[in-house]
C-alpha cells in the first residue's frame, strides 16, 4: 500500500482534505493489481481533534455526494465529527469503473472476474486501510441505503474499526436471496403505483398512452437509440423517493405533440425520459445491483425472473404499472452505456461463487452501538427483512417510521441524524 496523498483547501469555515490511497484490487491476494481510493474530509474550524465519521453512500455504483453547501445531515455531523465522504471503489475518483475502464480487459470473462472485486467486502477492506492511514482511531460510520449494507458487512468483518454505526434505509436481509428481495419489492412497487394513481388519477392512463405509442411508433432518445415501452416503464424507480410522485407527474403532464399531422412525443419529454433511464452516469449500479444480494449462489437475473410471478407487471397486463428498483438483462441491449457490458453482466449474474457478505454469528455477538432508521413503506429495502436484521444484530436499536420514503436522509437528514445519535448513545 502506498502512502496516503492529501491535498487541502478551504470552504466556508472548513478545511477540506482530499485523500488518495492506493489499495490492492483483491484484498485476499488472489488477483494482481491496485486501484486508488478517494475520500473528501470536511473539518469545521475548531474541530480538528474531533473523532471522524465516515459516510457510505447508497448505490451500488454511486460516489459520495459533492455538497455545494454544507447543510442537512452533514451540517449536523460537523458539529461533533470530522466527516469523511468516501467514494466507494469504482465510483467518483476511486478508480471509476465504466465501459471505458472495462474495455481495458480483453474478454467478458476477465471483466466479470474484475467486477467481483467491487462488492461490499472489498469496500469495507478499503475503508479499513483508509482508517489506518488516517491514524488508526476508531470512527463512527453513517450509511444510507446500500451504504447500510456495507456497514452491516463492516460489522461482520471489521467491527474493531467502528465506534458507532448509524444506518438509514439500509438494513439488508442477512439470509435472504435476491429472489426474496425482488418478491418483496415488486409487491411494494405495486402499492406505490396505486398510491401514485390516487394522487394523480389520470397519470397512469397517460403513461399507458405513451407505452402504446412507443409500441407502434419509433421514437428516439437524444442519445440516438429507440425508446421501448418496457424501458419507459423503468422511470417508476422515482416512486420510491419522497418527491418522486410530483417529479413523475411533471414529467407526464404533456408528453405529446403533433408534427405534420402525426402524433409524436415532445422533444422535452424524450429528453427527460432519457435522463431518467440512462445508466451512462452510473453503469456500475446496473452491473452490480443484483450481486449485492448474492449470498453464495448465482442471482441469475432475479428481477427479470421474479417479475413473471406478478402478472400486473406484464407488458400486456390490463392497467399500466411502472417498475421500480429492478435491473433487467434487456437493458444491456437498449442502453448504449450498457451494451458493451452485456456479456460480462451475464457472467456475473451466473456466478455461483460470490461469497456471503454477512456473518450472522459475529453480528449476534456485536458490541458496537448501532442505530438504524427503518421505513415501513420503503420501496427498495423491504421492511420485514430490515426488522429481522435489527433483531439479529446484538444491541441494535431502531427508529421505525412511515414518515419517510427511501430518501429520508436527503429530505430530513439533520433530524434523522439527531435521532440516530440519541438512540446509539442511550
UniProtKB/TrEMBL annotation:
GO terms for molecular function: aminopeptidase activity. Keywords: Hydrolase. The keyword Hydrolase applies. InterPro entries: AB_hydrolase_1 (IPR000073), AB_hydrolase_fold (IPR029058), Peptidase_S33 (IPR002410), Serine_prot/Carboxylest_S33 (IPR051601). The keyword Hydrolase applies. One of its GO terms (biological process) is proteolysis. Belongs to the peptidase S33 family. This is Alpha/beta hydrolase fold. It comes from Kineococcus radiotolerans (strain ATCC BAA-149 / DSM 14245 / SRS30216).
Amino acid at each position: 500500500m502506498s502512502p496516503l496523498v492529501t491535498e487541502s483547501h478551504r470552504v466556508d469555515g472548513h478545511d477540506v482534505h482530499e485523500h488518495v490511497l492506493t489499495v490492492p484490487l483483491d484484498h485476499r491476494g488472489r488477483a494482481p493489481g491496485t486501484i486508488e481510493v478517494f475520500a473528501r474530509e470536511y473539518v469545521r474550524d475548531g474541530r480538528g481533534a474531533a473523532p471522524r465519521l465516515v459516510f457510505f453512500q447508497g448505490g451500488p455504483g454511486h460516489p459520495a455526494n459533492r455538497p455545494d453547501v454544507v447543510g442537512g445531515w452533514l451540517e449536523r455531523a460537523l458539529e461533533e465529527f470530522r466527516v469523511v465522504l468516501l467514494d466507494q471503489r469504482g465510483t467518483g475518483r476511486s478508480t471509476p469503473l465504466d465501459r471505458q475502464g472495462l474495455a481495458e480487459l480483453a474478454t467478458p470473462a476477465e471483466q466479470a472476474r474484475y467486477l467481483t472485486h467491487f462488492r461490499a467486502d472489498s469496500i469495507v477492506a478499503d475503508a479499513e486501510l483508509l482508517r489506518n492511514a488516517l491514524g488508526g482511531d476508531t470512527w463512527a460510520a453513517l450509511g444510507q441505503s446500500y451504504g447500510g449494507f456495507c456497514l452491516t458487512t463492516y460489522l461482520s468483518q471489521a467491527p474493531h474499526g467502528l465506534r458507532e454505526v448509524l444506518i438509514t434505509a439500509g438494513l439488508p436481509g442477512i439470509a435472504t436471496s435476491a429472489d426474496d428481495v425482488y418478491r418483496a419489492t415488486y409487491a411494494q412497487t405495486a402499492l406505490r403505483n396505486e398510491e401514485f394513481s390516487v394522487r394523480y388519477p389520470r397519470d397512469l392512463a397517460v403513461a399507458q398512452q405513451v407505452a402504446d405509442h412507443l409500441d407502434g411508433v419509433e421514437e428516439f432518445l437524444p442519445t440516438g437509440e429507440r425508446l421501448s415501452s418496457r424501458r419507459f416503464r423503468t422511470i417508476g424507480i422515482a416512486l420510491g423517493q419522497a418527491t418522486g410522485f410530483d417529479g413523475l407527474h411533471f414529467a407526464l403532464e404533456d408528453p405529446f405533440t403533433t408534427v405534420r399531422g402525426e402524433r409524436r412525443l415532445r422533444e422535452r419529454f424524450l429528453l427527460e425520459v432519457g435522463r431518467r433511464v440512462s445508466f451512462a452516469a452510473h453503469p456500475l449500479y446496473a452491473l452490480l445491483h443484483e450481486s449485492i444480494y448474492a449470498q453464495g449462489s448465482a442471482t441469475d437475473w432475479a428481477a427479470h425472473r421474479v417479475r413473471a410471478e406478478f402478472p400486473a407487471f406484464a407488458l400486456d397486463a390490463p392497467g399500466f404499472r411502472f417498475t421500480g428498483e429492478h435491473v433487467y438483462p434487456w437493458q444491456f441491449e437498449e442502453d448504449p452505456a450498457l451494451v458493451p457490458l452485456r456479456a460480462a453482466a451475464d457472467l456475473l449474474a451466473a456466478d455461483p461463487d460470490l461469497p456471503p457478505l454477512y456473518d450472522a454469528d459475529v453480528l449476534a455477538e456485536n458490541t458496537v452501538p448501532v442505530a438504524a432508521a427503518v421505513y415501513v413503506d420503503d420501496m427498495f429495502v423491504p421492511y420485514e427483512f430490515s426488522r429481522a436484521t435489527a433483531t439479529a444484530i446484538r444491541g441494535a436499536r431502531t427508529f421505525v417510521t412511515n414518515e419517510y420514503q427511501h430518501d429520508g436522509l436527503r429530505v430530513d437528514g439533520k433530524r434523522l441524524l439527531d435521532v440516530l445519535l440519541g438512540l446509539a448513545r442511550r
